[in-house]
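Notes, Module 5: Reading structure tokens.

Key idea: the token line is not a picture. It is a compressed description, and you learn to read it the same way you learned to read a sequence, by spotting repeated patterns. We will look at two proteins. The first is printed below with its tokens.
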Amino acid sequence: MLIPKKHQSWISLIILIILSLGVFSYSVRRSTETGFARRVVLEAMAPLQSLINDSVDSVADLWNRYLLLIRLEEENRSLRKEVALLRDQVVQYREGFAEAQRLKRLLALDGQFSRKTVAARVIDKPPVSVFNTITISKGSVHGLRAGLPVLTDQGVVGRIMETAWHASRVLLLVDGNSNIDALIQGSRTQGILQGFRSTGCRMKYVPKTEQVKAGDIVLSSGLGGTFPKGLILGVVAKVDRGDGGLFQRIDVTPAVDLRDIEEVVVLSSEERSQP
């Protein structure tokens, strides 16, 4: 029967130990003898003992290396855990910093209006709904009511549709039921900005005689009293005067990316107290 290579060295070591012990036992029994026989025994044991010592040293070295590898693996595992923890902390710090920057920009809006503002978080974005809405974290106990404008630092998001005590539903300006009195910043041409196909808006009732071009800024006109004058609504994306009809078709891209909003500001109906 063939002996596996990985066991041959161990078997050889055992044989050497047995031979050494045999010679050593013989030496002890004949310890009273002197002369030629004792010298022969000592001469025979010397290479065996040297070989055994080398083998033992080799095994001890292998064992020490094994223990070292185990210790290095434990240290490596511990370091990997520390790296993962630090990576998570970096992600949290970056997220906290980004949120702080967004809130800072929103709070900067507070001094731009004569009315008080209420900051809120977006807590729900229904993927499927009859209306294009979001839900925010403030409600009637915070002074909110239906019809109030909802903004970010980039422009208009929509208006409050309904409120609960601690939450409100916001109708986005891209919804077909959203209508905002608007004007073109440069020409001062007025019309109605209406939501269109849930992704953009159209500015309606603008005569073909009015000069409107792609890239023009669309602002709230202030008519109707819901939205103060001068709020950014969007940018003209496309103008089509067509062949028939009185009005041109003006496609508008909202100023706010409604897919990514996380915090908003609601413009309340309460006027600021004068200092």
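Here is the second protein, with the sequence above and the tokens below, as before.
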Amino acid sequence: MAMLYGSDFFASSPYPVAIEPREPQSSFPEHHHDFHEIVIVEQGAGTHVLNGRPQTLCSGCVCFIRDCDRHLYEQTDNLHLTNVLYRGPNAFRFLAGLDQLLPLAQDQQPHWRINNKLLAQVQIIIQRLEQTPVAFNLEHLAQQELLFMQLLVLLRQGCIATAVDDQEGRLRRLLDWLADHYSDEIKWDELADRFCLPLRTLHRQMKKQTGNTPQRYLNRLRLLQARQMLRQDETRITDIAYQCGFGDSNHFSTLFKREFGYSPRTLRQNDFLT
């Protein structure tokens, strides 16, 4: 597994924060690093696998990655993101208690969602962070730390703002619900009613946000979970298919091979694919 070092990104600067845009971010193998990272997805789609757990990415997704985490990107499609790198929660001279704003514990959710309005505000702060002068002085350091604090507050507000009862907020709650209920029998007209979205709006907005139709997005969630289960235990392939929401194991195998390029059985038989 590759190791990325902060010395390659922070150079000799004593500043605790660095900005690394990825436009676009291509598939990248599993790696870890000796610094922390906040990933902000600006457009496109892809899959982020954090400590073996897959998460679909779309505009507005935010990922918190610690220095003890391992992660990778795959199946990217015009994925544009910005990496906000920081040396660690205790690397700030003027900020104390920063860890209280970060999901650092193992049981805390490392993936958040923010709406488009908050994303635009976040991008403004990132632009200002990018403008930090190379020449170091305490005033520049204090300004960078203040901007980083503003960024964290905005992200937390954005995470809470998904509860706002407008179309965008309802769609983001729907996506969060699907992440937990992918194995349920899904009827899109009933789900649209549940989240107070017109069915046509649901289809249009999901395509816009995720790059996929609702059914393809759901299939991808199920397939990602199935692949994780195939790698982690010896449950029969047919049983995994049913547990992940597929009513027919043959159909599951066909979709699986189309999505990943190899069959469930091949994954089981070849350790190099895991």
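Summary for the second protein:
- Residues 2-163 form a domain with the Jelly Rolls fold (CATH 2.60.120.280).
- The radius of gyration is 20 Å.
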